[in-house]
Design brief:
- The protein is of the alpha+beta class.
- It has a domain at 62-131.
- The chain contains 3 helices and 4 strands; from the N terminus they run ααβββαβ.
- The protein has helices at residues 2-21, 32-59, 104-111; strands at residues 63-75, 81-89, 98-101, 128-130.
- Strands 1, 2, 3 and 4 form a 4-stranded antiparallel beta sheet that branches.
- The radius of gyration is 31 Å and the shape is elongated.
Length: 131
């Protein structure tokens, strides 16, 4: 009998908690204009997501093993030379420190379109030779 009374008390407490925390009225939804604006944003995001997924699936398929080597001679703009480090394709038996994505020219053009342009990246080809 005590177990039944405890169960009834627990159910009554749960019901009281539900009633006191339940939202009192129906909430208003978005207006027609807000709904259409959100719908347009979702469509744009889906389109961008599909484009990015296509680029990732088609272009990012292989990486080139790269390692940083010491002993490269480089020429400064004033004509002086200095010894520095440089990145190069890892030789057989070397442990690569990073991988560069090999995307090819066609995929690079897709990546560099207005919507997918990777801003802030500059590609330099310094005049360096390994010693």
């Amino acid at each position: 009998m005590k177990g039944f009374a405890l169960l009834v008390a627990a159910l009554a407490g749960a019901a009281l908690l539900y009633v006191t925390t339940a939202v009192g009225g129906q909430q208003a939804g978005p207006s027609r204009a807000e709904f259409n604006a959100l719908k347009k944003q979702v469509a744009t995001l889906k389109k961008d997501d599909n484009a990015i997924q296509a680029v990732l699936g088609a272009c990012f398929t292989s990486g080139i093993p790269i390692i940083q080597y010491d002993g490269y001679e480089s020429r400064a703009t004033d004509g002086t030379t200095f010894i520095t480090t440089g990145l190069d394709v890892a030789q057989q038996g070397d442990t690569p420190t990073m991988y560069l994505l090999d995307v090819g020219q066609a995929c690079a053009q897709v990546i560099n379109t207005a919507k997918l342009k990777l801003h802030g990246l500059e590609f330099a080809r310094p005049s360096t030779t390994r010693r």
